[in-house]
What does this fold into?
Amino acid sequence: MNGASRSKFFGKIQEMAVFDGTRTIAYVDTEARDVKFLNRRMKFFQSNYPELQDMWKDVNAKQVILDGELVVFEKGKPNFYKLAEREHTGEKLRIKLLSEISPATYVVFDILHLDGQDLIDKPLVERKKILEKVVKESNRVLLSAYVIGKGKKFFQEVRKKNLEGVMAKRLQSQYQISKRSKDWLKIKYLKTLDCIIAGFTKGSGWREKYFGALILGCYHQGKLRYMGRCGTGLDEKGYAELTQKLQKIKTDKCPFEEIPKMPSGIIWVKPQLICEVRFMNLSRERIMRAPAFIRLREDKLPEECILEV
It folds into this structure.
């Protein structure tokens, strides 16, 4: 997006910061004192966040459905490494320990349902007003900060804080479930990309037991296309855990419709796992330069990994 078109777009929308957390739908029933979290893969995972089970106390209604992100803050900034540790822990004792040393916060940015009434057809600006009346902030819950009509200045503040970017939304937009919409636009500052893991190479040296590099892809014009290889960004524990996951989904079939030129010995996997990577830039062939692994994204679906340039 060039400067002129970005300015034009900013003038018509609300902008809010993107915290790069885990996108989460929260079902809150205050009468039953119950809180459930649902991720984009349609899995409930509230048991991983016991510190948020009293979130019903922060809701002034009987039943609500909220949209937001789970974030682990450290010194006022999101720490996605600690969040990833929370996401991939299944042992009850460790879950309890991490909930105390790395507590999560639910950052709310939308409300979809209120006491028997669906709100998704109401304009965003109305949903925001309702949300601010229904949810009160606490050490468990934050309302996502936003501005209207001052997008460029807000984006510069996001850059100074080294946050991921902003989410730009048209004020009259409805909530569109499971759809990509031109009314909502993520404008990133940091160069990151969510990629599908299509395969891996064998490791060597101390990584002989693990994978060497991940073969990554994204959807572009309806086809899964090769985006590059990534072999850095993890510690030994991370290599071991991810290797175990990859071994379980090996396949003889290459997931790419157009098979890229690759060295021999590639081990293909079913296109199920998604990882976020940071990179310097894209080459003319739209291949990532110097990609590094950040984390697995269990809150996204493969079909959402779309290259938009």
Q: What stands out?
A: Helices lie at 3-10, 80-87, 92-101, 124-134, 151-160, 236-247. Confidence is low (pLDDT under 50) at residues 1-13. The longest helix spans residues 236-247. The radius of gyration is 20 Å.
